[in-house]
C-alpha cells in the first residue's frame, strides 16, 4: 500500500497498465485519490491512492533530459528534495517540476548488457501477451463477450447498435422480461472497455439500487460506488475540488437522494459525465405547465452528460405527453414542440403500415405508393411493384433507417419474441383444521403488516407451526422432490420464521436469501441451491430476490401475494424470462376467505396476472388500489361480496381496453428497427467462437504457472486458484481465500459464485498487466542447438503505440501493434526463416556471461544488430500506420456520409452526432500519424 506522503504535485509517473499514455504529471492529491495528467496523450486519470498502478519516473546519471524551455542537461547526480527529484549537471540543475517533454527508456537493452536475463520461456510468454493484448483490443465483440449472460440476440443487437454511435442518447423500452438492464450494462461495458467513456452516473429508484449494483458487479464485473448523503458528507472535505461526485468514476445513486437535495443535485450536475443512465424513466413526471423535482434533476444532468440512456416500460402506456417528456431529455432541440410531435407520430404510423405490407409481401395501394414516391425514385418503387424481392428488402431497410423515433427508441415486445415459457397457475384454496375464523383473523393481521408501510417488522407474529400453508408446502415438496422450488414472500422476518418452521418439521434441505445477507453469503446460498444435491427450496424475501436469475428452477411458490401488480410481475420475472427452458408452475396457496383470497381473485379474474405478462400495472394500481385495499382488509367483506365482484368486473373491463390500446399503439416499424436478426446472429456467432476457443484458458494457465500460482483442475473447464504462497510474488487479482473461476459460459450462468473468465474480465487484464509491469521476458537469452552454423541471432519485440485519448476508438483501426523482428549477427532480417514456434520448441537456457565478456560483441556486433532491427521496425511501422489510416478513413467516411444522408429525411440525426464523428476522424488521423515505435523486449540467441 502506498503512503499518502509519497505523493506530491509535479512528480512524474507512468501507468503500469497503460504505458502508452507516456509520462504523467501529478496534478492533485487527496487522502484517497491522486490525479495524473499525461501531456503526451492529453489524458487525465484519477487513481485510488491505495492501489494506483503507477511507477515513479526517475532518471539516472548519464541520461539526458530537457526542461520546459528545451534546455538540455546531461545528468551527473540526482538528489531528492521535498519529495521531488532534482537533477544536477555541469553548472546547472533541473527540478522534477521543471521537466519538459520527457520519455522513459524501458530498460530491455540495459537488462541485456547487465546480464539480467530471463529464460526463453519468459520471452515467449511476453510475446504471446503482446499478441493477445492486440487481439483482445481489436476483437469485434470486445465488451460483449465478458458478460455473464445468455446470448440473447435482440439484446446484443441493441447493444451493438447503440455502442457504435457517437455520444448515444437513446430510450431503451423493451417490455418486462426482455432485458433492458442487460442491454444498458452491455452498452456501458463495451464503451468503458473501448475507452469511449470513463465517467458514468446511474440513477435508479431507491428500491432498485441493490439490484443494479449486483447486476453490474456479478454479471459484468463493474464496481459502481453507491452514493448517498452519508457517503457524500464523508467526502466533502477530501474530494478533489470539494465535489464528492469527482471522487469516483463509476457512481450509482437513487433519484430520491438527488431530488431531495439541491446541494447534491448541483454537485452532480457540475461534474463531467460521459454517460448518464436513468432507470424507470416513465416515473419522471412532466407536463407543459408543471415539472416534478425528479424530472428537473434528470433534465439538468442530461444537459451536461454527453451520452444518455433512459430505461422505461412501454413508452405510450403513460400517455403521449409522458412519452414526449422523455424524448425532450434525449434531444431538447429536436423535441421542443408537443403538437409537432403528435403530428409526426401520425406520419410514422403511415410509414409503419407500409413496412408491414412490404414485409408481408402484400400489395400496396395508391396512397402507399404515393408516400413512397415522395421518398424514393419511381424506378425503385416500380421494381418492388414488379416483384423484385431484393429491391423490396432494400426498401424496407431504408425505411427503417429513415424512421424518426427508430433512431432514438428501441423497443422489443414479447409478442415479437420467441423462447418464452408458459405460465401455469395453480391456485390452492386451503381450510384450517380447526378454528377457521381465528386463522382468518391471524392472516388478516399478517396481510395488514405486509401491505401497510411504517410498521416495524420485528413486531410481526407468525403461527407457522399450525399454518395450513406450511402443511401444504411440506406435502408439495415431497411430491415433486427433487425438483427445485423458489419461494418468495414479503419480508426477511417471514423468511426466517418459515425456515425455522420447515427445519423443525422436516429434513428438507432449505436455504434462505434476504437483504441482510452479504453479497458473498447470497452467492454461497444461491450456489447451494443450484447444485443437484443442494437445497431443494430457496426462501426469498421481496428485496432479497431482486437482481437474481433463477431460471434453472421451474416451480415458484407465492407464499403471500404482493399488493402491487408490478411487484407480482417482478416476482414471477425471477423465473419467467427469455431463455427459460421449461414451463413455469406458479403455486399460490391461500386460506379461503382471507384477505389474500380476495387479492388473488382480483389478480386472477380481473387481470389474469398469474398466467399472462401484465402491462400497465402501475396505472391499474393507481386506479383500483385504494378500493382493493379497503375491500381486502374489511373483515365484513366476504371473498364473494358484491362490491368485490364489481371491482373485479371493472378491473377486467379496464384491463381489456388497456390491452387493446397498447396493441393498437404498437409501433411495428419501431420493433423491426429494434431487432435485425441477421446482424444479431452474427454477433452471437462471434461470441460463441471466442467462448469455444481454448486460447485464453491456455494463456491464463501459463501465466499463473509462471508466477507460481497453484491451480486446482475441476470439471467443466473450471479451476480453483489458490492464493499465492508467502514466498511467491503477490498476485492482487486473487483474494486471500482463493477463488473459483470457469471458462464455460453455461457453468458460469448456473453458478454465480464462480467467476466467468473471458478476455474482457478484470482478472485477465490483471494477468496481462502483471506480465508487462514485472518486466517478465523483456530481456532473454537462449541457446539454439543443431543450427546449420554457429552465430548470433536477436529476436526483437517492438510495439507501435498510439496515444490513448478518451472518446477516440483507436482500437478499431490501430491498437498497440506488436512487431516481431529477427536479425542475424550481420544485421540481416531473417524473421521468416526463424518462426516463433521453432524458437519456443528448441531454445534452451544458457549462460550469457561468456558473450558479454567479449568486448567486440558488446560494443560492435550487438549495437549493429539493434540498429538494423530498429530501422526495420520504423519501416514496418510506416506500413502499419498507412494501413490503419486507410482502414479508419474508409470506415468513418462511410459513417459520416451515411449520417449526413439520413439527416435529410430523419430529424433524429443530431448535428452533434455528425460533428463528433468528424472530430473523431480528425483526432484519429493525428493519433495514427503520430504513432511511435517502442522497443519492448530483446532475446539474444547463440546458435551452436
Give a quick rundown of the structure.
The chain has 944 residues and is an alpha/beta fold. Helices cover 43% and strands 18% of the residues. It is globular, with a radius of gyration of 32 Å.
What does this structure look like?
- Residues 469-618 form the Helicase C-terminal domain.
- The protein is an alpha/beta fold and 944 residues long.
- It has 6 domains: 1-57, SH3 type barrels (Roll), CATH 2.30.30; 60-101, no CATH class; 113-131 and 777-943, no CATH class; 148-331, Tandem AAA-ATPase domain (Rossmann fold, 3-Layer(aba) Sandwich), CATH 3.40.50.10810; 350-405, no CATH class; 423-665, P-loop containing nucleotide triphosphate hydrolases (Rossmann fold).
- Helices cover 43% and strands 18% of the residues.
- The chain has 31 helices and 34 strands.
- A 7-stranded parallel beta sheet has the order 13-14-12-15-18-11-19, sandwiched between helices.
- A hairpin with a 3-residue loop joins strand 26 and strand 27 (718-721).
- Helix 20 (595-607) runs antiparallel to helix 21 (617-633).
- The longest helix is centred in the C-terminal third of the chain and has 49 residues, at 855-903.
Which terms summarize this structure?
944 residues; hydrolase; SH3 type barrels; alpha/beta; 31 helices; RNA polymerase-associated protein RapA; DNA binding; six-stranded parallel β-sheet
